[in-house]
């Protein structure tokens, strides 16, 4: 995973699952709650109207501190290859601004898929780094969930 410069994120992962399974993990509330968020966070609820123009709201509970929410609107929903949405915090930090997340999936040999994530543009490098850490930890959990040895 590498940063492509500027105040954007660019990450790539190969996951050991067909893209249809990964797309479900990216979009179905029960599945999303299993891997979303940095280490130690729980996801008490996910509300989602999965269609272009539809909204979502994810409740995030840090190990210490108050519950907070991530909200946005779906821009593109093209199962199983592409998902794009706006990303903003309710009650944002002064350094935050709305960004756009795009997730693309490319099947590799029927048993694995490449996930490409982009997000930006961030207002500050500090917020970019925070999102880089959060996505890295989240994608680590998704990768473990997609592993053939993962327990149901």
Structural features, described:
By secondary structure, the protein is an alpha+beta fold. It is built from 3 helices and 7 strands. The chain has a 7-stranded antiparallel sheet, covered by helices on one side. Helix 1 crosses helix 2. The radius of gyration is 15 Å and the shape is globular.
How do the helices and strands line up, and which of them pair or pack?
Layout: E1 8-15, H1 19-27, H2 29-35, E2 42-48, E3 55-61, E4 68-78, E5 82-89, E6 99-108, E7 112-120, H3 125-146
Antiparallel strand pairs: 1-7, 2-3, 3-4, 4-5, 5-6, 6-7
Helix pairs in contact: 1-2
Strand order of the largest sheet: 1-7-6-5-4-3-2
How much helicity do the residues have? Answer: 25-40%
- Give me the strand/helix succession: EHHEEEEEEH
What does the main sheet amount to? Answer: 7 strands, antiparallel
Q: What structural category characterises the helix and strand content?
A: alpha+beta
Q: Roughly how many Å is the radius of gyration?
A: 15 Å
Integer average pLDDT: 93
* Overall spatial form: globular
Low-confidence stretches: 1-5
Total strands: the figure is 7
Number of helices: 3
Hey, roughly how much beta strand do the residues contain?
35-45%
Give me some keywords for this one:
single chain; 152 residues; alpha+beta; seven-stranded antiparallel β-sheet; 3 helices; 39% strand; globular
Task: Please provide a brief summary of the model.
The chain is α+β, with helices and mostly antiparallel strands and 152 residues long. The protein is built from three helices and seven strands.
